[in-house]
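Fill in residues.
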């Protein structure tokens, strides 16, 4: 039941992030979200009018279903949760602010608002990880 609520909300993201956000925050779903990975959305005030790429990145990062190595390792896709870019720590949302390989992206995003900044770091990280996997280097 709880997973179904999450899936419905996530599917609604394809229509509008604002609607998905409202669905998760209603009373019944709020109670069902307690203790789940997406519980962070209850207190996360992500604006409902973001550009789609920014909203998708923020939604993924807030829920932990972010396609970064830590999550991909948890669901059995990656062999390790370690960042393939710097090999210093597990790669999750927090690591995007610390990864040495993303220093240039952080500098480029320094004047963006928090949502656009998070989205930019997320998409740059996803691109670099994908490129690393395609070349097999590292
Ligand atoms: Zn790293």
């Amino acid at each position: 039941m709880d997973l179904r609520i999450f899936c419905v909300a996530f599917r609604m993201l394809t229509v509008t992030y604002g609607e998905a956000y409202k669905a998760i925050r209603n009373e019944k779903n709020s109670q069902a979200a307690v203790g789940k990975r997406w519980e962070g959305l209850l207190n996360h005030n992500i604006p409902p009018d973001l550009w789609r790429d920014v909203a998708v990145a923020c939604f993924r990062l807030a829920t932990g279903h972010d396609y970064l190595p830590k999550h991909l390792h948890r669901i059995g896709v990656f062999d390790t949760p370690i960042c393939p870019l710097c090999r210093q720590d597990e790669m999750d949302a927090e690591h995007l602010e610390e990864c040495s390989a993303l220093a240039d992206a952080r500098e480029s995003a320094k004047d963006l608002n928090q949502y656009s900044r998070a989205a930019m770091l997320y998409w740059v990280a996803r691109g670099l990880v994908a490129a690393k996997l395609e070349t097999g280097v590292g």
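Residues 83, 85-86, 88, 91, 95, 99, 101 surround zinc ion (CB under 6 Å).
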